[in-house]
Amino acid sequence: MLKRIKNRMFIGLMLMQFNVQSENREVNREANREINQEVNRNVNRPVSRDQKAKAMYEAGKMSMRTKDWRDAIEAFEMAAKDSRTREAAIYWQAYSHYQIKQKAQAKRLLERLIRNNPESEWVDDARVLLFEHGEESEHDFHQHNHQETHQVELDEELKLFTLQQIMFNKPEKALPKVYEMLEQSKSRRVKQNAIQLLGLSDSEQVADYLFRFIEKEKNHDLQHHAIQMLSLRDNKNSHKKLKKLYDSSQSRELKSAIIQGFIHHDDNQLLITMLKKEQDPELSRHLIQMLGMKDETVALKEMYETSKGEQRRAILEALALSGDADYLYYVIDNESDQEIRNQAIQSLVMVDDDDMGAYLFQLYEKTENEAEKDVISSVFISTDIDPGVILKILKKERSQDRKHQLIHVLMAMGEVDALQQLYQQETNAEIKSVIIQQFGMMDATDVLMELYENDPGLVNDPSFFQAFGMSSTDFDEGFLMARFKEGNEQVKQGVLQALLMQSNVDVMVKLLQIEKDHEVKKQIIQMIGITDPDALIDAIED
Is 416 in contact with 439 (CB distance < 8 Å)? Predict the structure, then answer.
C-alpha cells in the first residue's frame, strides 16, 4: 500500500507539471485521495488555480481508467471550476455519470455544455454522447442531426480501420487517405486515431508531415498527441526536429509536451543544453524534472551546487525522482537554509529507500524546529517504518496536528492493532475521535462494534457513525436501526449521516416508514431524494 501511495504522489506531481496522461493502472481510490492532498500541498509551494485544475483533470482521467467513476466525477467537477479545463471536464464528468446510470445528471451537464459553449470543440462530442444514450439535446439539435453526426463518425472510423490494414502492406497507398481524413474530419476522435496510425509509420515523410501538422494545428490535444507519436521515433532526425519546434514555438504548453516527449530518448545532453538556454522558470523546472526521471544525477548535483531559490528546490525534487536518497540525506544534514532543508525532507516522499524510516526517526528526535517536525511527520507515510516507532513518537508528541498526521500514517500502513493500542492509551477525547474515524476508513467495522460493546456511550460521539459511513463494507443494518429507534436527536442524526454517506436508500426508506417525528421524516425524504429520486417515488406510492 505504501508503494502505491508513493507511486501516486509521483504521478500526481508529474501530471500537474506536464499535463500528460498516466498509464499506471494500479492507481486506486485511496491513491486519488493522496494525489488531491499532494496537489494542495504541492511540496510546500503555492498552487495556482490553473495548476490545480489541470491536476484534478488528470486525476479524473486516472480514475476513469480504474473505473472509479465517483472519484472521477468529483475530480472533473473541481477541474470545471477553471475556464481552461471547464469544457473538457464537464464532458468527462457527464460521461462518468453515464457509467453509473446517472442519466439525468449526465444529460443536464451535456445540455449546459452545449447551451453555454456553442462554439466549443466539445459540443459535437457532447451531442454524440447524448445520442448514444438515447437522449436529445434541447438546443437546436434534432434527432436526424444526431444520427447523421454519429453515422459519419462510424463510417470514418471504419474507413480508418481499413486503411490500417492496408498500411502494413502498401503504406504508400494508405498514407494519402489518412492525411485526407486528418485534415477533413470534424471528429476529434477520428483525428486522434489518424495521428495514432501515422505514428506507426517509420517513414521520414510521415514525420515531416506530422511536424507541419503540429505547427499549423490549433487544437492543443491534437498537437500534443502528434508530439507524443513523434517522440516515440527514437532517431536523431526526430530529436533535431523536436528541438527546432521547441526553439521556434512561443507556446509554453507545446514546449512542455515536447519536454515530456524526451522521456523516450536517450540524449540527455540535449536536455541539458535546452535547460542552459531556457529563461522560462516553469519550463526550466520541467526540464530539470525530466533529467531526474532519466537518472541524470551527476549533472543535477553539479547544478545544485551553483543554483539558487526555486531552481534549487526543483533540483531536489528531480534527485528524489531519480531515487538518490543518499544525496538528499547529505543535503538535509549539511544545509543551513531551513526552507531548503525542509524541501529536501519533503522530497523524500518520492524515494524508495529501506533506511529512510530509521533516518527520519533520528532526525525527528534530534530537531527542535517545529516546522521541520511537521514536514518529517508528513513524510513518514512513504516509509516502511515500524509502527512501534510511530507509537513511541505519539506518546511524547504534544502537537495535536502532528498527532493527527501520525495517526493517519498508522491508518495508511493498515495498522489496526497499533491504532487500537493507541486508542486504549489515549486520554484526549478529540484524538480518540480521530482514531475512530481511521477505523472507518480501514473498513474495521468489527473494531467499531467491539468499542461499542465496551462503551455504549460511543453513540454520542459523532465520529462513531461517521466511521460507519466512511467504511466501504456492509454494516449491520439491524444495529443502526436499533440505535436510531432508541437514540436521542444527536444519535438519530449520526445514523442518518452514515446512511447518506453510504447511499443506503433501503434503510432510509425503512426508517421513513417507522419514524413519527414530522421534521425528521422531512429530512429523510430529502436524503432519499438526493440519493435516489426513483426510490423516493416508490416510497411515496407505498
Answer: yes
- Give the rounded distance of the alpha carbon of 78 from its chain centre: 11
Using CA atoms, how far apart are residues 234 and 290, in angstroms rounded to an integer?
17
What is the average per-residue pLDDT within 116-123? Answer: 84
Q: What residues contact residue 295 under an 8 Å CB cut-off, 6+ apart?
A: 322, 323
CA dist., res. 475 & res. 482, Å (int)? 13
Write the DSSP string, 290-316.
HHHHTT-HHHHHHHHHH--HHHHHHHH
pLDDT of residue 152: 56
* pLDDT for residue 154: 57
Q: Which residues contact 371 (CB under 8 A, 6 or more apart)?
A: 338, 342
What's the rounded Cα separation, in Å, for the pair 18 and 34?
19
Query: Would you state the pLDDT for residue 243?
Result: 87
533 Cβ contact list (under 8 Å, min separation 6): 104
Q: What is the pLDDT of residues 146-174, one digit of tens each?
A: 444 555 555 666 766 777 777 767 778 88
Query: What does the alpha-carbon distance between residue 151 and residue 492 come to, in Å, rounded to a whole number?
Result: 54
- Integer angstrom CA distances of residue 405 from 120, 374, 412, 433: 44, 9, 11, 14
Cell representation of residue 77 = 467537477
Q: Name the helix (H) or strand (E) containing 484.
A: helix 477-486
Instruction: Compute the distance between CA of residue 322 and CA of residue 366 in angstroms, rounded to an integer.
Output: 27
pLDDT of residue 172: 80
Spatial contact of 115 and 108, defined as CB atoms under 8 Å apart? no
How far apart (Å, rounded) are the C-alpha atoms in residues 403 and 144? 62
Rounded mean pLDDT, 282-290: 91
CA–CA dist 56, 426 (Å, integer): 37
Burial 457-480 (b: 16+ CB within 10 A, else e): ebbebbbbbbbbbbbeeebeeeeb
